Amino acid sequence: MSVQNIDSVLQEERLFPPSSDFVQAAAINDAETLAALRRRAEEDYEGFWGDLARQELDWQTPFNNILDQSRAPHFRWFHDGRLNVSYNCLDRHLEARGDHPAIIFEGEQHDIKTLSYRELHAQVCRFANALKAQGIAKGDRVVIYMPMTPEAVVAMQACARIGAVHSVVFGGFSAESLKDRIEDAGARMLITADGGNRGGKIIPLKQAADKALAHGCPSIERVVVFKRTGHDVDFNAERDVWWHDAIDGMDSSCEPEWVEAEHPLFLLYTSGSTGKPKGIQHASGGYLLGAILTMKWVFDIKDDDIYWCTADVGWITGHTYVAYGPLAVGSTALIYEGAPTVPDSGRFWDICERHKVSVFYTAPTAIRALMKCGDDIPAKYDLSTLRLLGTVGEPINPEAWIWYHKVIGGERCPIVDTWWQTETGCNMIAPVPGVVATKPGSCTLPLPGVMADVVDDKGNSIREPNKGGYLVITKPWPSMLRTIWGDDERYVSTYWPKFDGKYYLAGDSARRDKDGYFWIMGRIDDVLNVSGHRLGTMEVESALVAHPRVAEAAVVGRPDEIKGEAIFAYVVLKGDRPEGGVDRALTKELRAWVAEQIGPIAKPDDIRYADNLPKTRSGKIMRRLLRSIAQGEEITQDTSTLENEGILLQLQGKA
Ligand code: PRX
């Protein structure tokens, strides 16, 4: 798709500088300090990153080589250095901050637990020793399919401690998705729980895990099961071991495995424009550096902050801003297990009040949903401890931004709108809040050392204000993905396909305004953003055509007030089209089928049945036409290639 003709209609002019109180307390609070950082990165890119890596990370073996470009775009950072990520998150804080809370946990049913750095360290060590006792060693892949509990973080940190490579699968994904990810990663171990609490229900994780393993996953030797809900689950005594039995008698210290900086820390599967999710592979040193710097630059993190990022550890945000970043800087991470609406839609604000949350980071979809519940709900709570708010995952509409600013932030908290991706590892374009004035809907300016640009089809930088183009990163950065697990070629063809392979192609279109502020305009590929979660249209299509009655399917997004994007599916059946295009029972069945194949987040919101899909003469599905129809727009495209004009009416739901 060409982005040449994308011009923006949205022009938001309001500017929100940080309050003087905020500025006074901020670590970076004058334009000159920020400008000096940017200058340094411009003038001596490697020196800039090298100094920061020495300053921010504890190395067991210092590195001499900062950036190795010899196998570009397979870049290596600090590759002759050795370190351990878990050591950097835990051990190095023990002396000065051993009793400081590392994690505050609140379960959906109000069970609360606090773990100090010393306690978390002991738990991680004990579990790391258990992993070793179960035969897990450096480089082995371990899949984690857990509820949002501290044990999910313990499992991740324990893997990092022994050099095992974790791959967390979001608990909302189905058995089928879990199986695909386990098989692609070739994992030896699965760590799961009997279940998790969400929305007043039990999420039957062990049951899904058993189902995944019954249909495949021959590489799995051991399943560790954490007892969370205590309900009855099947137990295969030869394969399964309870978490509490596995750690029984294990030592509470565990020498970290010192790994090369490039050693893979984790894989995280994400959607692309094909049916098969990609295992995004991150390295240890560069990734952690990005997590630490953005905790400082973007979240202006302070020793006594209570930092709450609401993301699940199944997503990249839950990796960088729950499991690693907050711990690496010695702060306190709040973890909440459940849904924002239990027992009512005041839960988030109730948690903020009771735990005195000071930095709160969530997704626009959650903000919009809570905004709909009315101002009187947050008004019941004391939100005065909040000092900084953040958003991530999709563009935030100015209305929701203003509500967040006024009703939640009391007009006193800057909002950091952070643009980044699973692939980038950490925030890339985001305000440094003590300096950069914000504009509702803009992620503002690239962070120091992030060379972001907006370019045209030929790779030329677009200077004209508000002219849309491809969002690219023109230089490698430490926390970037290293490859797609097991598929170097796909890594190159997905992220470096244009501009002579020189620029990282983010897959988003963007524009810059007259002040150079970035505005993300949406994906340029067939990736949907549903409630801030990435889903490939092809994934949903593959799931639909796997149903015995479906011959063909095309899936597009349509704007949705709460979710950002909703899933719209056009389906051609193997038999006859239902009378008048309506078959409620089948629609229900197909929605359930997709939930089963991928997970409930992928359920189509609308399904329309047609005798055929609209195709070009060369046989390509006319997605733009389908998108227009899904949005209820006037059809302006050329439809003369349609075999049967009647199909248009069917697609529109008019026949
Ligand atoms: O389209 C952009 C959107 O989310 C995509 C990345 O999705 P994922 O890898 O799942 O990571 C989400 C959390 C980092 C991007 O390509 N996106 C992310 N943040 C923003 C955004 N769009 C607009 N504004 C943002 N702040």
TrEMBL record:
Pfam families: ACAS_N, AMP-binding, AMP-binding_C. It catalyses: acetate + ATP + CoA = acetyl-CoA + AMP + diphosphate. InterPro entries: Ac_CoA_lig, ACAS_N, AMP-bd_C, AMP-bd_C_sf, AMP-binding_CS, AMP-dep_synth/lig_dom, ANL_N_sf. Residues 539-620 form the AMP-binding enzyme C-terminal domain. One of its GO terms (cellular component) is cytosol. Residues 36-89 form the Acetyl-coenzyme A synthetase N-terminal domain. The keyword Methyltransferase does not apply. ATP binds at G393, E394, P395, D417, T418, W419, W420, Q421, T422, D508, R523, R534. The modification N6-acetyllysine is found at K620. Catalyzes the conversion of acetate into acetyl-CoA (AcCoA), an essential intermediate at the junction of anabolic and catabolic pathways. AcsA undergoes a two-step reaction. In the first half reaction, AcsA combines acetate with ATP to form acetyl-adenylate (AcAMP) intermediate. In the second half reaction, it can then transfer the acetyl group from AcAMP to the sulfhydryl group of CoA, forming the product AcCoA. This is Acetyl-coenzyme A synthetase. The lineage of its organism: Bacteria, Pseudomonadati, Pseudomonadota, Gammaproteobacteria, Candidatus Tenderiales.
